[in-house]
Amino acid sequence: MACVLLFSRLLPFSHRLTRTSICLLSLLLSYLCYCALFPADTIMHKSGDPTPSCQRVLADGAKRRLQKSLSCVLPLDERASSVEASRLKSDQKSSSTVHIVRNDTPSPPIGSLKFGNKKLPNAIIVGVKKGGTRAVLEFIRIHPDVRAAGTETHFFDRNYDRGLEWYRGLMPRTLESQITMEKTPSYFVTKETPHRISTMSRNTKLIVVVRDPVTRAISDYTQTLSKTPDLPSFQELAFRNQCLGIVDTSWNAIRIGLYALHLENWLRYFPLAQIHFVSGERLITDPAGELARVQDFLGLKRIVTDKHFYFNRTKGFPCLKKPESSGSPRCLGKSKGRTHVQIDRDAIEQLRDFYRPYNVKFYEMVGHDFKWE
């Protein structure tokens, strides 16, 4: 319409123009009309793919320049798709660049990668103190299908109010096929613990490491004495009246050895088949045999065998043979295998007489004679 009006204005003066001028004027007017009817961006859009221009802008800068560039102007209905395409190309370019960097950078150590999930324990070593619980945990955790918390959590006896999620957070990461374990020896003698564990899961497998209660009490006293040198004598703590043979069952070192009484509490919440008893004495003389039974109880393949152990004569206790990747064998800490305090022989016999009926009852309950005499 603008071109028509312009021609109509110039027509009265056409007789004054030469033929050449008229031709040039016509061409100029035609060009102006053409530009007005067909803008440059429309021509570019209709005559070819807009992506080359977009790619140029993308190569020169970033996504913000693409949005601001005047050389990549598209109709509204196609602008979004073009931007998305450009973003995709940019992401592909970035991915390619990152890939190159990764090839030039050393991979992170395997230990820093997080595999598996933290799960509540499938099995717990619940006791007993000074029975050999640390040895059992250290021996069984070399099995590839076992992962265990490194320290005693004391969740069910001291930290129960923190909740199960706090407890779960203390567990190691495990794969679906692996067993999660922890050990806290005081669980066995804590009245509330069996009910609390059964509330978490009635399918939890329980391991109890037991030992001659007299020897266990002396070992317990020896450990306490090493931390408290001014402790009264063993006899003073163990007896209310030694002349009459009256034992003080309120002393924790004595009370722990009443296995039958503690087991009665556990059997209210768990069947006997779900509790495995490890002999603390055989754990020293035949660690492979005891670990074989533990592996069977946990449903594991027997991988921990006699080839993993050797007897340390200095400590009087078995140690794990050194792995190929280590320079030294793995033995338990200095507190394990400690020489016991010498106790009067008469006091020992009095304690054996005291424990004998409890031991017999315990043998009957578990169906096994541990021969503690």
User: How many DSSP E strands?
Assistant: 11
Low-confidence stretches: 1-7, 41-108
Could you report the average pLDDT, rounded to the nearest whole number?
Answer: 80
The CATH architecture of one domain is: 3-Layer(aba) Sandwich
Order of helices and strands: HHHHHHEEHEHEEHEHHEEHHEHHEEH
Q: If strands are numbered along the chain, what order do they take across the biggest sheet?
A: 3-5-2-6-9
Q: Describe the biggest sheet? A: 5 strands, parallel
Which range best describes the helical content: under 10%, 10-25%, 25-40%, 40-55%, 55-70% or over 70%?
A: 40-55%
Protein name: Sulfotransferase
Subcellular location: Endomembrane system; Golgi apparatus membrane
EC number: 2.8.2.-
GO molecular function: [heparan sulfate]-glucosamine 3-sulfotransferase activity
